[in-house]
Amino acid sequence: MAIETTKWGVLYCPRTGISNKQKRWEKIAAVLRERHVDFDMVQSETSDSVERLMTMLINNGYKTIIIVGGDSALNDAVNCLMKVEKQVRDTISLGVIPNGVMNDFARFWGFDEDELEQTVGWLAAKRVRKIDLGCIRYTNKNNEKCHRYFLNCLNIGMTADIMNLRRQTRRLFGSRTLSFITSLFVMLFHRMEYKMKLRINSDTIDRKVMTVCIGSGPGYGQTPNAVPYNGMLDVSVVYHPEMVQLIEGLWLLIAGRFLNHRSVHPFRTCEIFVDEARKAMVGIDGRLMKTPVGAYRVNVEQEVINFLIPD
């Protein structure tokens, strides 16, 4: 049976570690009904099921797909969308109701986890904007050519470690601030520098680097001027500062003035080549990914996703 083009497909991704998953969904569903939204809901049980359920919604003809989840769930959704033909993808609009451990991409647009009525109202207004995606192209351990898209950012080095620890400690402590501080404390005992060789525009960086953030979006504060609609990537390369400078850098990150730190070197480009990043972990939209083997490339794909933004 054909799906009405006005009906939403809602993919509910419960937040890991909370006990009232059903209560949260009931609250969201109540707001959708109050707004007279016609919808069908499917629920993911694990992160691995998001792409499978997203594929099901696409194949069943839903033209508006809403992800109730965080950055990682959105990442899975856009990677699934990018697998279908452009003519099909162009008929689908993707939206988000923030419900994840990390909701930075939703927050960039002004979506608030606690403002359900406002969020659903904005989504119902159906204001669509074409957005860019970043893309990492790499070789895996089986010598296979792979790629993965990202909405917000790709991190190489220490920040990928922090994002991974932040996710784990957020599940333990619940608080964003407490989990971030705990992660930073744990990171004091981790590796702080990585030998890297990067090519950005006409510049070559061949030295020890603490962390690199490549942002199509604000990059958890590390690429604060990046926007997912200008066809460019913002890159922040951070050399290893002294301890006093490190503390100053953390304060500037929290204050939203990260680029003012003397150890941060910002770039804007449409492509970056990572010729070497020895033993540096890679995180994509807040989730640790398997470290690429050898060199890899990161570029931007312009205006490839229809995204529902605030009215």
Outline of the structure:
This protein has about 300 residues and is an alpha+beta fold.
Structure description:
- There is one protein chain.
- The protein has 311 residues and is of the alpha+beta class.
- It has 9 helices and 16 strands.
- α7 (158-173) crosses α8.
- The radius of gyration is 19 Å and the shape is elongated.
**Helical content, roughly?**
25-40%
How many DSSP H or I helices? 9
- Tell me the fraction of residues in β-strands, as a range: 25-35%
Order of SSEs: EHEHEHHEHHEEEHHEEEEHEEEEE
Structural class: alpha+beta
| Largest sheet entry | 10 strands, mixed
Shape: elongated
Low-confidence stretches: 251-255
Distance between the termini: 32 Å
Radius of gyration from CA coordinates: 19 Å
Work out the number of β strands.
16
User: What is the residue-mean pLDDT, rounded to a whole number?
Assistant: 85
